[in-house]
């Protein structure tokens, strides 16, 4: 069995290595999943770099999510059979040919493109939970987000449109404006110091109840300036690698609430049945073609160094997600 791992921290393309490992052996209540595809996330790169709060025990196999088919079933497992397609459990170390996991809680995956489906466990629920759990949103309400061309940003546009919520989408490149409008974004603007004035003009000064900040730094303040008094501002990314910068006056005079968002934390507030229902809802949308991810490239596992190098690029050099496939 092939496995991608790193044994020290450093530049991802330098520290990641592909090794041969023993085949997985089953324990009671476990299954082995033959992995089909798994994304390369920025969080994977942060782990390889050893950034604060992303350090993991070494050696470590990256891969926070993916999709595959059950290839072996251990004693005591019921309701599953070999060949069943399932989503991998979160943070199971998906960059390998096979992964051994507990059978309990596995979520069925539909037929369809494995590359697209590999992104289903994390990014779609993130956008789903942002819109469901914050802002008390109703049809006709407004949300603003930056990094709108990210995978989460694109899912948020599609989900908001389905639910009648209007979106202001902030990007760094003007060439993205037509694409995100075609996806369903109501307003798409290039980030700049005068963002609040242009947002007000484009929305008719409608109150914006929720802001979604994946950038941080001064972008947090620009987002806050666009919000209605009493609104919620979620920080869920760290693209700038800086602390959120926001005026205290905005917080205590305008009652803007700056909160952190973490998908796993929101899931932990739900029962397993409720989590499963969310995935079933998202899979139904995927099957109907209502949710899609933009893919920049897919690499076979034996080109994992090329994959992580590509994933570390920005702008036009990485316009979409990077996916690893476990093709021989």
Describe this structure in words.
- The chain is α/β, with parallel strands linked by helices and 328 residues long.
- The protein has 2 domains: 2-119 and 293-325, Alpha-Beta Complex (Quinone Oxidoreductase, Chain A, domain 1), CATH 3.90.180; 126-264, 3-Layer(aba) Sandwich (Rossmann fold).
- It has 12 helices and 15 strands.
- The protein has helices at 12-15, 42-49, 114-117, 123-133, 151-162, 177-183, 195-203, 218-226, 248-253, 263-268, 272-287, 304-311; strands at 2-5, 17-20, 30-40, 67-73, 85-87, 98-102, 107-108, 142-145, 166-171, 187-190, 208-213, 232-235, 257-260, 295-300, 321-325.
- The strands form 3 sheets. Strands 3, 4, 5, 6, 7, 14 and 15 form a 7-stranded mixed beta sheet that branches. It has a 6-stranded parallel beta sheet with strand order 10-9-8-11-12-13, sandwiched between helices.
- The radius of gyration is 20 Å and the shape is globular.
């Amino acid at each position: 069995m092939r496995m991608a791992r790193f044994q020290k921290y450093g530049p991802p393309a330098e520290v990641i290595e592909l090794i041969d490992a023993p085949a997985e052996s089953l324990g009671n209540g476990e299954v082995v999943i033959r992995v089909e595809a798994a994304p390369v996330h920025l969080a994977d790169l942060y782990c390889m770099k050893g950034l604060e709060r992303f350090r993991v025990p070494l050696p470590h196999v990256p891969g926070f999510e993916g999709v595959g088919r059950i290839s072996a079933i251990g004693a005591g497992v019921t309701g599953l059979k070999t060949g069943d397609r399932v989503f991998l459990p979160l943070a199971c170390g998906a960059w390998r040919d096979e992964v051994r996991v507990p059978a309990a809680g596995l979520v069925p995956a539909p037929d369809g493109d494995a590359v697209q489906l590999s992104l289903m466990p994390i990014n779609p629920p993130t956008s789903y939970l942002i819109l469901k759990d914050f802002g008390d949103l109703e049809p006709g309400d407004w949300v603003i987000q930056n990094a709108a061309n990210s995978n989460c940003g694109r899912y948020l546009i599609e989900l908001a449109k389905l639910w009648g919520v209007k979106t202001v989408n902030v990007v760094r490149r003007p060439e993205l404006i037509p694409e995100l409008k075609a996806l369903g974004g109501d307003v798409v603007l290039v980030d700049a110091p005068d963002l609040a004035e242009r947002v007000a003009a484009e929305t008719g000064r409608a109150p914006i109840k929720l802001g979604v900040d994946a950038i941080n730094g001064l972008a947090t303040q620009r987002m806050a300036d666009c919000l209605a008094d009493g609104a919620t501002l979620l920080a869920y990314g760290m693209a700038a690698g800086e602390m959120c910068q926001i005026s205290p006056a905005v917080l205590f005079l305008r009652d803007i609430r700056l909160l952190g968002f973490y998908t796993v934390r929101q899931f932990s507030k739900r029962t397993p049945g409720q989590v499963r229902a969310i995935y079933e809802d998202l899979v139904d949308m995927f099957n109907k073609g209502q949710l899609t991810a933009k893919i920049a490239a897919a690499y076979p596992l034996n080109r994992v160094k090329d994959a992580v190098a590509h994933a570390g690029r920005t702008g036009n050099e990485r316009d979409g997600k990077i996916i690893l496939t476990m093709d021989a």
